[in-house]
Amino acid sequence: MLRRPLAGLAAAALGRVPTDGMSGPRPVVLSGPSGAGKSTLLKRLLQEHGSVFGFSVSHTTRDPRPGEENGKDYYFVTREVMQRDIAAGDFIEHAEFSGNLYGTSKAAVRAVQAMNRICVLDVDLQGVRNIKKTDLRPIYIFVQPPSLDVLEQRLRQRNTETEESLAKRLAAARVDMESSKEQGLFDLVIINDNLDTAYQTLEEALSEEMKNVQRTSCS
Ligand code: ADP
Ligand code: 5GP
Hints:
Layout: E1 28-31, H1 38-48, E2 53-55, E3 58-60, E4 74-76, H2 79-87, E5 91-97, E6 100-105, H3 106-113, E7 118-122, H4 125-131, E8 139-144, H5 148-158, H6 163-179, E9 188-191, H7 195-205, H8 207-218
Parallel strand pairs: 1-7, 1-8, 2-7, 3-4, 8-9
Antiparallel strand pairs: 3-6, 5-6
Subcellular location: Cytoplasm, Cytosol; Photoreceptor inner segment
EC number: 2.7.4.8
Protein name: Guanylate kinase
């Protein structure tokens, strides 16, 4: 469901927080409830178009899940280190989610943009709202599960959460699903029911940006 055209969406709002001259292709922000399928879609995008997209590796204070790698999935840090770096101004945005800190460092986005790749950020709703206050001007995409029941099933099947963190994530999901309807918050809402269909929608929405990158890297 295309909420509004993707072209020419760079908001002209005043009073934005500068991101220290970051430049390059227009970034993409993926948001949506935990368990909606953001990482799954993102992994496929990076597998299929690895030379065009780059993932902005966030920092988090949560523990790594089995198979997650430091520096690839996240930078896993202590709360103390993260708070120090936030105070030093190293982050574009940060938020507390389900009892842990998460944040996008300026260095993470810069590293992707330096390669002339489309930087993809995976952030929660607070991150979306905070990025709107910066001059990053990404395309905002909300990944939505078909229903809260399906979301719960997927989170349970992923087998990464305790009952406590599952409950926190589902509570946040309820709020996120409502917020996603807010006029102008997202450029595109993708309902991730069938994975292939959802992926095709994502790929199609980003096809113009991909062509732009391919054109500039060939010239
Ligand atoms: P997120 O990154 O948004 O938290 P994940 O990508 O980890 O979500 O997906 C949550 C779980 O749901 C994973 O186990 C994933 O394999 C599964 N999943 C993702 N998309 C689909 C889909 N369309 N159909 C069924 N299962 C899915
Ligand atoms: P998870 O613990 O499942 O990896 O992530 C939990 C939530 O944190 C997800 O909604 C994810 O989008 C969000 N998240 C991951 N990295 C960041 C970040 O850098 N900033 C913000 N604001 N949210 C993030």
